[in-house]
Design a protein that fits this description.
374 residues; alpha/beta; Rossmann fold; 5-stranded parallel beta sheet
Length: 374
């Protein structure tokens, strides 16, 4: 692996030759809704064929592992039930360490939480009248007002409250839809209380999975910066962002340091590829054939804001623009170079607003149908 540059790392070898475990998010990475991400199953078959283990680490707490495993198998993904680690399991494990065996826990969620609580010897209930010792909340497509009201009643009474995750949205074939974080916010607004969070971006899920499979060098793969990639950094693991789910190129360009991916790929086929390193030159940040610089707001017109060239003092220092010095032929190299340039500039000039329009236009010219969002 190369030296880290503003969050990005490079690898001259395919990633499957570097890591011994791939920890995959599900929604937006392997599938969207009930349908597989195109090519995901085939890519994972190739990963497994070279001897790298795959595991599935999801913040979605609505389904138990055996249901998730069956869904994956129906999509053509080779997965055993114990290859699945859910935020419902993480939340239940936290509660099991704190509560006496057999304690009742109010569930604001679906079947996944019920099964996870039962597996650790706790009793899931649906009403405060059943004497719960705590409240746990996770995504469920059938969670409605009455259950949210019961959760509000329990939290207002002072019971400990754990959320499996706070993802504001979940990906669907029609675009983002409300996720568990939206439902958690309803109870938080009604009570003024903030829950403890068990799932991503907390490192618990990733550490549990790495320990379960005895991994020495795991790689986290996800589509969300605020859960998957932030969680990877919190866990001390490298993270690969794929562009098949919620967060796309404009989101990557403005990612805060703690949420930046170490690696970026179009989809899971990126696991089989080398990743050229980002290199700083007198023209800008170079990845492969692509070169991107920043002009304005402390940057240098056509340069990178170093001692090479003179700063442009005539520009509006509240704004900066990504400049594609050379687009190259590979859109992903252009994305990586853009991120390296944008992150370096943001670290030096955090007050500046970055305009990505030129980079996005160049991406569309290279590949009009690519996963780019304006």
């Amino acid at each position: 692996m190369s030296i880290e540059n503003n969050g990005l790392i490079g690898s001259a070898r395919p990633l499957v030759e570097v890591y011994d475990l791939v920890l995959l998010d599900l929604d937006g990475v392997v599938y969207i809704g009930q349908a597989a991400v195109p090519g995901a199953a085939e890519a994972l078959d190739r990963v497994r064929a070279v001897g790298v283990r795959t595991a599935f680490v999801t913040n979605n707490a609505s389904r138990p592992p055996h249901v998730v495993g069956e869904h994956l198998r129906q999509l053509g993904v080779h997965a055993d039930d114990d290859d699945v680690v859910t935020s419902a399991q993480a939340a239940s494990a936290l509660l099991a360490r704190r509560l006496p065996a057999g304690s009742a826990v109010l569930v604001v969620g679906g079947e996944g939480l019920y099964r996870a609580l039962e597996a650790v010897g706790l009793k899931p209930v649906a009403s405060v009248d059943e004497g719960p010792a705590a409240v746990v909340q996770g995504f469920g497509p059938d969670v409605g007002w009455r259950l949210l009201a019961e959760g509000t009643r329990a939290v207002r009474s002072g019971l400990p409250w754990i959320a499996t995750n706070t993802d504001l949205t979940v990906p669907t074939p029609y675009g983002p839809a409300p996720g568990n974080g939206t439902l958690v916010a309803a109870i938080a607004t009604a009570t003024g209380v903030t829950p403890e969070v068990a799932g991503k971006p907390q490192p618990t899920l990733f550490h549990e999975a790495a320990q379960r499979y005895g991994a020495k060098r795991p790689l986290v793969v996800g589509d969300r910066l605020d859960t998957d990639l932030e969680g990877a950094r919190a866990a001390g693991m490298d993270g690969l962002a794929v562009l098949t789910g919620v967060h796309r190129v404009p989101d990557l360009l403005i990612a805060a340091p703690g949420r930046r991916p170490h690696l970026i790929a179009r989809d899971l086929n990126g696991l089989l590829d080398p990743h050229p390193a980002a290199i700083r030159t007198d023209q800008g940040w170079s990845v492969g054939e692509a070169v991107v610089a920043v002009s304005g707001a402390g940057g240098v017109a056509g340069g990178v804001g170093t001692s090479v060239g003179a700063a442009d003092t005539s520009v509006d220092h509240e704004k900066a623009e990504l400049q594609v010095v050379r687009p190259g032929s590979d859109p992903m190299d252009l994305v990586r170079a853009g991120c390296a340039a944008a992150w370096a500039h943001a670290d030096a000039h955090p007050e500046a607003h970055l305009d990505p329009a030129t980079l996005l236009d160049a991406l569309y010219r290279l590949e009009e149908a690519g996963p780019w969002e304006r």
